[in-house]
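Following up on my earlier thread - several people asked me to post the actual chain instead of describing it. Fair enough. Here it is, all 369 residues.
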Amino acid sequence: MQVTYADVWEFWLRHRDLASAVDFVTIHILPYWEDFPIPAESAAAHIESIRERMAAAFPGKEILIGETGWPSAGRMREGALPSLSNQARVLQEVLAVAKRNGYRVNVIEAFDQPWKRQLEGTVGGYWGLFDDASRQPKFAWGQPVSDHAFWRQQAAGGIAFAALIFAAALWSRRREVSRAGWIAIAAIALAGGSMVGWAVELMFYESLGIGGWLRSAALVAAAVVTPVIFAILLVRGEGLPSFADVLAGRGEAVISRTQWMAGLLVAATSVIAIQVALGLVFDPRYKDFPFAPLTAAVVPIALVAYAARNAENGSRAAERIAAATLALSAIYIVFNEGFANWQSVWLCVLLLVLALSLVRFRLSRAAQS
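Reply from S.P.:
Thanks for posting it. Predicted structure:
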């Protein structure tokens, strides 16, 4: 009977004396989880390089790779992107290298293990070759792989949603809308139409527990409702009310019903964005980047916030505090995550845009004058 011990490859280099007590050395190499994450395109070369290094460190010992693999969903770590296509690429390239060089590899894992999401966030539940719910393989070896299995339905839904935004704007206009106004509405429709399907898709991967599902549902709701309401606000030429005006209600009809709804959406989006930002500042390792729903929500807010040129700048204490929190968090996050992480960069741009929009809020009375 042969004896071995399994641990990450760095452990073996720190405790080389252990090799004398085993018949062969078992190492774990997970490129995604390295201290300096390895992109999918470099994962197979990285694994081969580490194995050669271990073989040189322990001459005469067989080197078994006990764990290696790639997640099919989850947050980026620097340039390491979890996706189905990257999972298929990494596994096929690693096994091809192992076969060519004649060494053994154990791929993790057979099935997705949802319970790991409690420990490792979204990414922990998506390392399997087989889907946990359907017990079907995630991809066919040697065949094309799509990261968005329902892209046709998402595209059709996005087109329909963009058409709905234009229809709402046309139905609600009370004055002649300038060319710049229609361009802004087109931008809102583009952001909403292209992101809403992606937001719904990510919701089913990223939501965990009641709190997670509530946050995801709120983000998707903001992604759906905000473009429509703000397209209406834009064609009517109405400004954004302050947080104080929203909390005070419509009062003596100082702000319209549409303005009040828009202000409520801004407040809700800001609260969720701050929660996301602070989570990525203080406990980022297993947090996702909800860039898709926030894109659909933030783009309309920014366009309307900068549209009413005739209104007086009217940011107040709540808006300034929220803007400062978002801006400072974005600066920290983008440097902490690295510029190779496009999910992080995308989200941080949205946080900064939202922060700038908040300090451009128009006083409701000035907008109505």
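The beta strands are 4-8, 24-28, 62-68, 105-107. That should answer part of your original question.
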